[in-house]
Amino acid sequence: MRIGIFRGNQILDSHDFKGTLWEQLAGAMERFRQVLKVRFEIKVEEATLEGLQRKEVWEYPLEALREALINALIHRDYTIPADIQIKIHEDRLEIWNAGELPLPLRPDDLRGPHRSVLRNPLIAQAFYFAGLIERWGTGTTRIIELCRQQGLPEPEFQHQQGGFLVTFAKDPYTPERLRAMGLNERQIRAVLYVKERGSITNKEYQQLTGVSKRTASGELSELVEKGVLIKTGGQRGRGTTYWAKIGRIGQ
Q1: How many CB atoms lie within 10 A of CB 232?
Q2: pLDDT tens, 218-235?
Q3: Which terminus of the chain faces fewer neighbouring Cβ atoms within 10 Å, N or C?
Q4: If you average pLDDT over every residue of the chain, what do you get?
Q5: Domain segments of the chain: what residues?
Q6: What integer pLDDT is reported at residue 251 of this predicted model?
Q7: What DSSP assignment string belongs to 160-172?
Q8: Per-residue pLDDT tens digits for 139-180
């Protein structure tokens, strides 16, 4: 298993992980903790020190990455002399293993309930007895759900160059990225509101930011023009609603 950090086509760092499959998995997960960014969210249950709860939020859900790595180890075609390759780019993380999905599975099937089709049943059995997987083909749907819960785009599943590729994308709507797009603080606050609640109206924008209806209309239109929000609704602004492309967190 090999992990590389890339900036464009430039390789900034590369680490190889050998040994048993357990050791490769553990080594890769530890490497993720070393190189991926993490932020901390503080939740107050009550006004005491004990009531403060700190939650780690990684730029990609670690449990989803772990699930994808386990799938790569279990379903890899070991007759092909190629490493499991993990590429960490500035805007995405890719996990590739040799061997396409066993028939009759197709990449799109992994987005919903599907049967478990095993290329390496003995390896899968070892992981099952170790409590690392189940036998019902729900691993990929769990990966998708973990990304949704964190407000991230759904990962992509595809065949590529005789293998199988999973691509995780970063949250495109962080405050830092929105500022880089030239949005003002009111617009950023509105986008974060939409990420949490799913949509926003002109009236809600006014209440949230304290601006006039005309200013709200102009700033919301700019968010649509820049591809941040999607606009739906009736004529002359009646019933107009603005939606997030990545949907509401948790949906």
Answers
A1: 10
A2: 999 999 999 889 998 765
A3: C
A4: 87
A5: 2-169, 175-244
A6: 35
A7: ETTEEEEEEE--T
A8: 888 999 999 888 788 899 999 999 999 999 988 788 888 898
CB 95 within 8 A of CB 1: no
Is the pLDDT at 118 greater than 60, yes or no?
Answer: yes
Which candidate, 31, 35, 38, 32, places its Cα nearest to that of 55?
38
% of the chain beyond a pLDDT of 90: 58
Nearest-5° angle of CA 136, CA 73, CA 246? 65
Model pTM score: 0.73
Comparing C-alpha atoms, which of 69, 62, 11, 54 is closest to residue 34?
A: 62
Classify residue 242 by burial, with Cβ atoms within 10 Å: 0-12, 13-18, 19+: buried
Domain 2-169 -> CATH class: alpha beta
Rounded CA-CA distance 143/157 in Å is 11
Query: Helix, strand, or coil here: 249?
Result: coil
Q: Please, which residues bridge with residue 241 across strands? A: 232
Where do we find the tokens 């990962």? Answer: 155
C-alpha distances in angstroms, 159 versus 95, 108, 170, 231?
Answer: 12, 11, 21, 34
Q: Which residues contact 131 (CB under 8 A, 6 or more apart)?
A: none
CATH architecture assignment, domain 175-244: Orthogonal Bundle (1.10)
Residues 244, 191: Cα–Cα separation, whole Å: 8
